Amino acid sequence: MTMKAARSARSLRAHPTFATTLWPWLRILAALIVIAAVVAQLGASIAKAEELGRDVGTVVANFLSFFTVLSNAMSAAVLCWAGVHSLIDKGEGAQPRSLSIALACVTTYMVVTGLVYNALLRNEALPQGSAPLVRGPLIVSPLTGERPWYPYPFLNPFTVGGWGWVLVYVAVTAAVVLAVGLLVVAWTRRDSALSKRDATVSER
Questions:
Q1: How far apart are CA 96 and CA 104, in angstroms?
Q2: Which domain holds residue 87?
Q3: Pick from 77, 68, 17, 57: which is nearest to 139 by CA?
Q4: Which of 58, 63, 67, 152 could form a disulfide with 133 if both were Cys (CB 3.0 to 4.6 A apart)?
Q5: NCBIfam families from the xrefs (predicted)?
Q6: pLDDT value at position 14?
Q7: Hey, CA dihedral for 86, 91, 95, 96, is it positive or negative?
C-alpha cells in the first residue's frame, strides 16, 4: 500500500496541470451548463404561462419552489466559486473551509434529488421539475384565487391522505438528507486523509 501511495504522489507531481488548470475550467463549464438549463426552463415556463393567460409572478414563484431548481442553482454557484478559487490559488494553498462545506452541501442536495426522484417521482407526470422540496409553499393565484399549490404530489395533503402522511414524507426526506450528508462528510474526510498520507510518503 505504501508503494502504491508513493507512485500516486509521484504521478500527481508529474501531472499538476489537470488539478490546477483543466479541472477548474471543467467546474466552471459545468456551472454554466446548469445555469443555461435553469434559465431555459424558466423561460419556457414563463412563455407557457403567457400563452395560457396565467399569472407570470405566480408561475415564477412556483418554479422557484422546486428543489431541483434550487439545488441546481446552488450547485452552479458553488462550482463557479470552486473553479475561480482553484484558478487563483493554483493549488498552492488549502481549500477554504467554507468552500469545502458548500461543496459537501450541494453534493448532498444533488444526490438526494436523484434518490427521491427515483424512489417517489419516477412514474409521476411532473413537467415543472423532478425532485422534492421539504416544504409546501402555499401560493395562491392573485388572478383566479386557486387553491394552494404544492410542487409535488406527496406534499399535497389532498392527494396523500392528509397532513399526517405529508409529515411522514417530510421526515423521511429529512432523514435521507442527513444520512447522505454524513456519508459525504465521511468520504471527504477519508479523501483528505489519503491525500495527506500520500504527501507524507512522497516526502520520505
A1: 13
A2: 2-203
A3: 57
A4: 67
A5: Pr6Pr
A6: 46
A7: negative
From CA 193, how far away is CA 176, in angstroms rounded?
26
Q: What separation in angstroms does the CA of 98 have from each of 11, 81, 104, 105?
A: 29, 11, 10, 11
Tell whether the torsion through CA atoms of 194, 196, 197 and 199 is positive or negative.
positive
Cβ neighbour number for residue 154 with a 10 Å cutoff = 21
Integer Cα distance of 60 and 157 in angstroms: 23
Q: What is the pLDDT of residue 17?
A: 56
Q: Integer distance in angstroms from the first to the last C-alpha of the chain?
A: 15
Closest CA to 67 of 21, 124, 115: 115
Q: What is the pLDDT of residue 169?
A: 92
pLDDT score, position 202: 52
Which parts of the chain sit beneath pLDDT 70? Answer: 1-20, 91-93, 123-147, 191-204
Flag whether the pTM goes above 0.90: no
The confidence score (pLDDT) of residue 37 equals 95
Helix (H) or strand (E) holding 137: none
Residue 166 CB contacts under 8 Å (≥ 6 apart), including other chains: 136, 154, 155, 156, 157, 160
Do you know the residue count of the chain?
204
